[in-house]
Amino acid sequence: MEGETPTGSAKGKNAFPREMALWLGLSFAPILVFAFRLLLTRAKGTPLSFIQLGAGSMTFYFVLLMSMKGKRWRFHQEKEKLRFAIVYIAGLIISFACSFFSPLCWPYLPLAVLLLLSSDLPQAFCGYFSLLILQVFLSEMEPTVFVTFALIGCIGIFMFSFLDDDFLFGVPLFCSLLFQTLLLLVVACAKAEPFDVKSALLILFNLIFSFLLLTGILKYMSTRVIHKVIDLYAELNDPENTLLTQLKEKNQRSYYHAVHTAHFCEKLADKIGADAALCKAGGYYHKIGKLRGETNLKNTLEIARENEFPKELVRLLREYGGGKEPLHSKEAGILLLSDAMVSSVMFLFDKNKDAQLDYEQIVQVVFSKQLEGGYLERCRLTMEELWIIKKCFMEETLYYDFLR
């Protein structure tokens, strides 16, 4: 790990309390919304209502805190948590507005899908039920209505959880809207008063509104968020990228070191479910500072900013090159081990190009050195994942010949 100052570590430490404060504010916002509704209508809320909302808020806050240390969020959203905060705040506003309208036209399906697309399953489920519980108190919701919208949200989140980077959303959109319509029809027919034209029109309005809103949101996410990031990484991870070509012309050893490191980063990330595109880019560009004469954090970050690297890649490069502090993210841990392994093998081949190396012994030495040095003591890589990574290095005996 090369660098001059622990910039990345300091920023990481400062960001953590800010994120905790953000989640705390979001989690307890439903209580404020409920209190405002009582003030507006001059109604009286029971202490039990606030206790129940508080318990739900604490649960939501706990899940959000766990998400800060858990696996990555969907579609590279883990570094854009403000997007989830905006969606949740919009959900609070929608919940408040829905208290003045019939449940048959509540747009909770688009809200559930948006929560999922801006986070991941645990955060989406807890965020959705936090808003739904708030709606119970705002609208004095009947149990059948609560169960209906719980099912609508769960089905929507479940259907869209199968979206991958291809982002083909036609089938989950159709199934979600179909289930929503059927469930709302059941609620309308279960009422004491007979099913009438007004109820039918409200359900139809909800169907059309949800379809248009979801279609617009999903197309925007596909073109402006998902594929934009994917295309950017595809460009950065092309060995013929302009920056990599310049590195090859300036220093072939650094270029091939980056190529081999990127190979291992991508393979290891795929093995343990980390962000493969981000890891591969980290492998390619952790030595890009060489273009400015020396591989250090300052030069690397200057080039990253000038070429508009993705935010998460800039953070990875800062974390990895930010000094001697222990690493935190899985991607940085993978980059550390890949860089160390490639450096060790290339060093030994430089001493004797025809040497027959004991790769298993090299792997053991590399792992022992990094673990004993304390670089991985705070890393989110589990012991099982470290074992998978070690096993993968030991199985790559044929590839190491390319490092001669």
Walk me through this protein's architecture:
With 404 residues, the chain is mostly helical. The chain folds into two domains: 7-231, no CATH class; 237-403, Hypothetical protein af1432 (Orthogonal Bundle). 73% of the residues lie in helices and 0% in strands. It has helices at residues 7-41, 47-69, 81-98, 108-117, 121-139, 143-160, 170-190, 197-236, 242-250, 252-272, 276-285, 297-306, 311-321, 330-351, 359-372, 383-394. Helix 7 packs antiparallel against helix 8 (197-236) and helix 14 (330-351) crosses helix 15. The longest helix has 40 residues, at 197-236. It is elongated. 39% of the residues are buried.
Largest sheet: none
Overall mean pLDDT score? 84
Rounded to an integer in angstroms, the radius of gyration calculated over CA atoms is 26 Å
What is the molecular shape?
elongated
Order of H and E elements: HHHHHHHHHHHHHHHH
How many domain regions? 2
List the total number of helices: 16
Beta-strand content estimate: under 5%
Low-pLDDT segments? 1-14
Gap between N and C termini:
23 Å
Class from secondary-structure proportions: mainly alpha
Count of DSSP strands: 0
Helix content: over 70%
